[in-house]
């Protein structure tokens, strides 16, 4: 295994993840700095909040691509082990959350994580889409819905006989998202209780 190549993949994944698509979409459509509007989060949900649904959808898809490309390139183009794709995906999520191009102030990583996980384990992700949709319709909070159903992902991977690298990779990705999204979860929980 060429560890210099793995390092290069991680650096490239981080730089791709650092491309601030949500920031750019808000800038191009509304001429605003997303860091000073809405909740100050440089992510697709805040773009939708301040620039409308079309802009938010565009930002979401572009942020998803930041997670898809490094994983796809690592596993399917370079033919490296699955755990290498996990590292590439984690690097992209880290780049989105702490982008070098915006002074390390980014989003919460949900859209990029969806791209990463959907590329790593597409069948398992698709299985969770239906319950995720209904839970979201009930709770009206995307991050809270993902965090409730998230632990089922590594379980599904285990049931389907996926490799240990993928199972542990999904666990690490979920932990990464959970730790970074705790503030949003507390806010969502307060809003649900106050309804």
What report would you give on this structure?
It is a single chain. This protein is mainly alpha-helical. The chain has one domain (3-193). The protein has ten helices and no strands. The mean pLDDT is 86.
Summarize the structure.
This protein is an all-alpha fold. The chain has helices at 3-18, 21-30, 44-51, 53-77, 82-97, 110-120, 122-139, 142-149, 152-159, 164-193.
What is the structural class? mainly alpha
Largest sheet: none
Q: What proportion of the residues form beta strands (DSSP E)?
A: under 5%
Helix proportion range: over 70%
| N→C terminal distance | 54 Å
Arithmetic mean pLDDT:
86
Instruction: Return the string of H and E elements.
Output: HHHHHHHHHH
Total strands: 0
Give the count of helical stretches: 10
Question: How is the topology of this model organized?
Answer:
Elements: H1 3-18, H2 21-30, H3 44-51, H4 53-77, H5 82-97, H6 110-120, H7 122-139, H8 142-149, H9 152-159, H10 164-193
Keyphrases for this structure?
10 helices; 195 residues; mainly alpha
């Amino acid at each position: 295994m060429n560890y210099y190549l793995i390092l290069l993949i991680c650096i490239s994944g981080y730089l791709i993840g650092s491309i601030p698509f949500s920031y750019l979409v808000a800038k191009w459509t509304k001429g605003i700095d997303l860091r000073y509007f809405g909740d100050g989060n440089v992510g697709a949900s805040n773009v939708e909040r301040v620039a409308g649904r079309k802009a938010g959808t565009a930002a979401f898809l572009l942020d998803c691509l930041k997670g898809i490309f490094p994983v796809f390139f690592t596993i399917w183009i370079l033919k490296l082990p699955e755990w290498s794709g996990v590292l590439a995906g984690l690097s992209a999520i880290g780049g989105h959350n702490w982008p070098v191009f915006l002074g390390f102030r980014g989003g919460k990583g949900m859209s990029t994580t969806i791209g990463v996980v959907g590329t790593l384990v597409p069948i398992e992700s698709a299985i969770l889409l239906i319950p995720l949709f209904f839970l979201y319709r009930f709770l009206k909070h995307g991050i809270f819905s993902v965090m409730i159903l998230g632990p089922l992902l590594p379980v599904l991977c285990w049931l389907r006989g996926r490799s240990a690298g993928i199972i542990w990779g999904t666990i690490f990705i979920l932990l990464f998202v959970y730790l970074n999204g705790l503030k949003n979860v507390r806010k969502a929980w307060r809003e649900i209780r106050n309804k």
